Amino acid sequence: MSSSKRGTIAKDVARIAGVSTATVSRAFNYPDHVSAEVRARIESVAKNLGWAPHGAARALATRRSGAIGAVFPTLTLGDFPRAIQALQHELARNKHTLLLAFSEYDLDQELGQIRMLLEGGVDGLVLVGKSHHEDVPELLARYGIPTIHAFVFDPAAPNTCIGPDNHKALYRLTRHLIDLGHTRFGILGQSARNNDRVRARLQGVRDALAESSIAIHPKHFAEGQWGIAEGKFLLRRILRHSPAPTALVCGNGYLAIGAMLECQRLGIRVPEDMSIVGYDDFEIMSELPVPITTVRVSGEDVGRRCAQTLISRLTGTVDEPPHECSAELLLRASSGPPRKGEIPALDLGPEEHRDQEIDEARPVRLT
Amino acid sequence: MSSSKRGTIAKDVARIAGVSTATVSRAFNYPDHVSAEVRARIESVAKNLGWAPHGAARALATRRSGAIGAVFPTLTLGDFPRAIQALQHELARNKHTLLLAFSEYDLDQELGQIRMLLEGGVDGLVLVGKSHHEDVPELLARYGIPTIHAFVFDPAAPNTCIGPDNHKALYRLTRHLIDLGHTRFGILGQSARNNDRVRARLQGVRDALAESSIAIHPKHFAEGQWGIAEGKFLLRRILRHSPAPTALVCGNGYLAIGAMLECQRLGIRVPEDMSIVGYDDFEIMSELPVPITTVRVSGEDVGRRCAQTLISRLTGTVDEPPHECSAELLLRASSGPPRKGEIPALDLGPEEHRDQEIDEARPVRLT
DNA sequence: TTGTAAGCGTTATCAT
DNA sequence: ATGATAACGCTTACAA
Asked: How many domains does chain A have?
């Protein structure tokens, strides 16, 4: 029946429809170059046989895989999930597939994944941020495929960047606090290692403070990881140095949530005693007893536009001048004017270490 | 220089290394079938030229794409992100790539994505759950590639399912509450539409209750969507019918968090007045003022084992008897013995409707 | 151990 | 509008 051991191929369709394989191919790729009746016949036969062109063969012949590669740091943080979903959705709408890989914030791993995707034959690439392993530029140049750096915006290279201006966002957020009258600031930051977005945001805070000649006490700058528990821990560390800041800028939403919950536990009122602001807006940011002021970036927007930009670059449609993705400040109840006096010093017990993690849960294994 | 217009090909490497293309191929695929010196020469030339085998050509010749497809409902819920990350990680370790698509809990869309992946030439497939569009089985049969149904466990088809026993998990969780002495239950469930995992969990609750002859008042069963705000809303709805339940089983973590926060707002003590339990364990579940009892499934475990199972099935290594993924009950402070008397009825104001969503934030656009 | 050459299933170039 | 046929770049018998 079928001339191939496994599966139907174009030759089968051609034979049964009484045409050549060239016509079968044309019927699918250039429908209007084929007479209506022949096309109908071919389509009917193809449907009956359940035939669809073999991806690899097509890729080999056209030198197009129809696949876009993407390397993200992780799937568990920030706006990445929504961006990826939107990216895939938009790619699928344009008959492209998404090859996804993760770097876990490790430049070497990212390089390896990029290489893998490139060798896999992707037509385009989405990377996060603009600083990568030193071998990346050469690699990209060799393969010469369109590449987009997502979640950053660089006026110098506007058409390869799609994202918010991280610096401006935190600059503005900090200004908001300064305008409210704050002068004693604290910063809860995630590690900026291998993360140019975080560096840019931090610089935004510093620039806003410097502009108003506000100095920040070194002990009020706490750098750590992601996480709610981490936010609680870092807040306590900051509170060990009096007078406590009246405004706390957090590098991400989870740190802000942790700080907020810890304030609640310690009896520090937000925003009366301390204002807390974050970055990233997931549902819980607005659902805690005191909703948290934050910066919102539309992951959907970033993902969708990465797809659109790549597609139009691949198809030669040069109708796209990609530019900065807007971010917005969401002013909520967690930020307000500073309190007048100082927060009374709290007894926080002895100095803590991060590794004394305990889970209070009694786990019960279900067979 | 290079015989192809763009890019280096095996022929170039062969020519420069003074061997045939067959030997180049062998040097990479069967290193020990090539003499050490020749292999070294080839590898050196290949590295200099930055050559790597063309994916599509290799796929066409070997009838293996080295790609695994996966269709997940979404990336923003539950354990999916971690599962996908582990899946990709494990695939990469085995020189495979991940083609990812989303169904958004829509069977038609899922079918479309499956078709797309299949035509893209994936070697294996990961789907979530075991109920799909009616055309799926035939499609899978036609392509004849190994497929795994993730996040479910079916003793009848143990080697195509990798996941927890959803029914058992919620059966056990409910029993835990019954053993504590609860008799008045409430359920906050997400819609079971197109979601066999949710249906199984719900049945687990019902079976445990039935076994102890506990009836649940219809007004104490509230079905809705995902989300913290939804949890708050549904909790209020349940509270409108007195006497209030003393134990609340939530179909997912976000509903549990919402219910918890709303109890806090309304002055209902947890667990003294009401026990609250959920499903899924993300960080915030254990970081709220009252940590929430829940069921933890290891997304990493599910993802990693999907990869391992597929790989070993593809390579013919039949050393894998895939089986149930363990889930565990995490007993935390949100579940305890029931209170003696009834909760005094609260004044909740007029009946609400879900669509009166408001965001209290003042958004400020950043240029 | 290495080379020769026949595929793998399309698409694209030329004719007709 | 349609058909032959040569790529596309690699793998893999089969020979040597």
From this structure: 2
